[in-house]
Design brief:
The protein has nine helices and no strands. By secondary structure, the chain is mainly α. About 20% of the residues have low confidence. Helix 1 crosses helix 2 and helix 3 crosses helix 4.
Amino acid sequence: MNPPNTATPPQDWTQRSRDLAHWLSRCALGDRAAFKQLYDGSSGHLYAVILRIQRDRSLAEDLLQEVYVNAWKSAGSFDAQRAQPLTWLTHIARNKAIDSLRRAQSQPRLESIHPLDDDDDRPDADQRLVDDAPGPAALLERASDARQLGHCMEGLTAQQRQSVALAFFDGLSHAEVADQLRQPLGTVKSWVRRALMTLKSCLERAARGDSALGT
């Protein structure tokens, strides 16, 4: 196990981030009690992140355990000066879930787990899209590796780009995004909602253009 990174977390971090960083540093020292606290404090969020990508619940549960095995082994490499702990853990979870799809030679079918109009704004892993047509969040996720996404993201304001990146690429809930950006929750929801609609229009235009070129 690597020696712990002892860098002090930035002053503007939330208490939750400070707690997660502390538990990670203790995990790097082999503290199993801290590992349990880390699991209890982040597993619900990471499981929801995995379910956005790998919709098989049984596989998602197995992947979650693999995430924490990785986190335990590499806790000493966590650097508080480079990333927040939840972002670091989310990166591991997303990679695990995407790798599981690649191994199965399938494509990810992703959708937002953060209801845009839910005042509670807590991830709902059981949410399903009623409409078969992909919504703006689904289009964003499916285009996460496409060059066109970069072009479409340029059409957003700086606040919209940052909030969308935190919500859909780092896996944060709207409440967590609001906390990190130090903005009212309603403001962040408005940024995300408008950004997704703008991206949806841009990506749909790009898809129509690709179809026309292929005919």
